[in-house]
């Protein structure tokens, strides 16, 4: 049997998409602030170089860029993009872990449990309740995810199979898939780190060049 990503509960998929969306929003806000700070610093460094252009124009551009940093920061704070990203990611990973444990008879949903469905729902709601106390927005409260879909048919089918089939499915579709996912993420992060490191070096050199030019012009 193959237990796919799509076989997880609808609540997981909604929280996973919400986490990705809020992560993108938070990342874009941080990127915008950094770009505005670079622009503000660049414009400020040109205010003393009168040969390049009118100093007041560059001073005004610098002020506008710094104001933009504040606007983006206030908007991100009001939107709570970063906290909701982290809370939704926690909820998604919690639901995914619990679903897998239920499907393969993992604790506390072993074969000896009289009513594993009821135990699953109790554990699920207990964990999600802790996240709600921290500010997590439950999509079921807004009707975005229907009630009663906590256990999928694929979870029940995998749970009904023998030990060897459950073990093979768990190793292949959970452990190996997760290992490969982390490897891909590590490679993407390595490339992004390298790109930003070189970008910082180039911007630093540019800033140094402008500063030295300003000294000589002065």
Which secondary structure elements does this structure contain, and how are they paired or packed?
Layout: H1 10-46, H2 55-79, H3 81-103, H4 116-133, H5 153-159, H6 163-217
Helix pairs in contact: 1-2, 1-3, 1-6, 3-4, 3-5
Describe the structure in your own words.
With 218 residues, the chain is mainly α. It has one domain. 76% of the residues lie in helices and 0% in strands. The longest helix is centred in the last third of the chain and has 55 residues. It starts with 9 loop residues before the first helix and ends with a helix. 15% of the residues are buried. The model has no long low-confidence stretch (mean pLDDT 87).
Give a brief outline of the structure.
The chain has helices at 10-46, 55-79, 81-103, 116-133, 153-159, 163-217. With 218 residues, the chain is mainly alpha-helical.
Describe this protein with a few key phrases:
76% helix, single chain, 218 residues, elongated, mainly alpha
Mean pLDDT: 87
Helix/sheet category: mainly alpha
Helix content: over 70%
End-to-end C-alpha gap = 75 Å
Fraction of residues in β-strands: under 5%
Biggest sheet architecture: none
């Amino acid at each position: 049997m193959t237990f796919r990503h799509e076989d997880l509960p609808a609540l997981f998929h909604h929280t996973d998409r919400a986490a990705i969306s809020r992560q993108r929003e938070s990342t874009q806000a941080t990127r915008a602030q950094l770009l505005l700070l670079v622009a503000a610093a660049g414009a400020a460094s040109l205010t003393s170089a009168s040969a390049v252009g009118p100093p007041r124009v560059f001073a005004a551009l610098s002020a506008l860029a710094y104001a933009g940093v504040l606007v983006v920061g206030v908007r991100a704070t009001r939107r709570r993009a970063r906290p909701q990203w982290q809370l939704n990611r926690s909820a998604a990973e919690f639901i995914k872990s619990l679903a897998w444990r239920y499907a393969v008879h993992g604790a506390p949903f072993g074969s000896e449990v009289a009513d594993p469905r009821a135990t699953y729902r109790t554990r699920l709601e207990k964990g999600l309740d802790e996240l709600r106390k921290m500010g997590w927005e439950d999509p079921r409260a807004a009707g975005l995810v229907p009630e009663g879909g906590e256990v999928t048919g694929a979870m029940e089918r995998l749970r009904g199979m023998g030990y060897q089939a459950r073990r093979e499915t768990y190793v292949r579709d959970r452990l190996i898939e997760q290992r490969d996912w982390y490897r891909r993420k590590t490679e993407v992060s390595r490339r992004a780190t390298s790109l930003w490191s070189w970008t910082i070096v180039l911007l630093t050199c540019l800033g140094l060049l402008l500063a030295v030019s300003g000294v000589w012009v002065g």
